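Q: For a teaching session next week I want to show students how multiple molecules come together into a single three-dimensional assembly. I've collected the sequence lines for a complex. Could you give me the predicted structure tokens for the whole thing so I can convert them for display?
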Amino acid sequence: MPAALIVAGIACICTATGGWGWLIARQLRRRPAELAAVQAALQALRTEIEYASTPLPDALRRAATAARGPAAALCRLAARHLEAGAGASAADAWSVALDQTDALSSWDTSDLAVLGQLGTALGASGTADQVRHIALCVGRLRAAEAEARGGAERQARMWLYLGVLAGAALVLVTL
Amino acid sequence: MGVNADIIFQIAGLGILIVVVHSVIKAAGREELAWMVTLAGVTVVLWRVVTVVNDLFQAVRSVFHV
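A: Of course. Below is the structure for the complete assembly, covering every listed component.
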């Protein structure tokens, strides 16, 4: 086999595994900021429910303006599904929106579980109960954010190196 | 003989790589993952060595018609 072809193959493998490591590192670096954004959105939602008694679709739309990225998309989609789905509950709309936002976000399964639990309380109980649920959810997300900020940079660097090194190991084993 | 020299260099390269990976993962504070990767590396190397030793035994058997 020509040497140039072998070198091209090695470069392809290392680029592919390096890219895979870079994708994981990017997710780890984005997660704290995205958790902060969803907390901001939920705080805005809480304000709308508690002080303005705004109907849920409008409250969700206003909460979307308080955040950016996937958090804004989540609120916007939930509002849209709530208005479009005749007879669909807020929990269903929230759940569908969460599923659609999952691909765009860097939230992990525990974050999604916390947000999913909040959906069951939205629009299904009184103001005080909804506010309590939102506060609980924000508290849990804040703890997750603090934990993510603690080791995010170290973990991200580890995955960057691991991507390239995994490629090198693959090349060594297959060569 | 050429094949044997190749496998020696391959195993040496894998050893160096495993040491680097172990220290990178350990520096990130995930020692259990570092040990798992090391164990996987040792398994791969052992598998290679066992294959070569098996070839050697086959050669000895065929030489002595055992």
